[in-house]
Specification:
The chain has 117 residues and is mostly helical. It is built from four helices and no strands. The protein binds zinc ion.
Amino acid sequence: MDELTRDQMDELRRDLTEGRARLDDVVEMSKEGSRPVSLDEPIGRLSRMDAIQQQQMTLANRGAYERKRRQIDAALEALDKDEYGNCRSCEEPIGYRRLKARPETPFCLECQDAREP
Ligand SMILES: [Zn+2]
């Protein structure tokens, strides 16, 4: 696997920054969606059951979003320190193709596979 070029690093930094902004939008929206459902509140076309189900979904998603947000922050920090692009487990370069697909990933494919059951 090759080390990243300066251009690739700049591109991935842009991807990470944009990804973070999008994620923040989604988290902001999910906060609205997970307000307590009041019986008196008009909830438009949704039935109360639908509203509750949707609320549970956004709560479950929010955990995943927040994990990803932390990974993006860590990746941007690594970029600043010139440590970006190396696997945090085996310290080999992760490779541009994988980083382009998941710029926030801290691990190379091999180590990621080893971690997931
Ligand atoms: Zn690795």
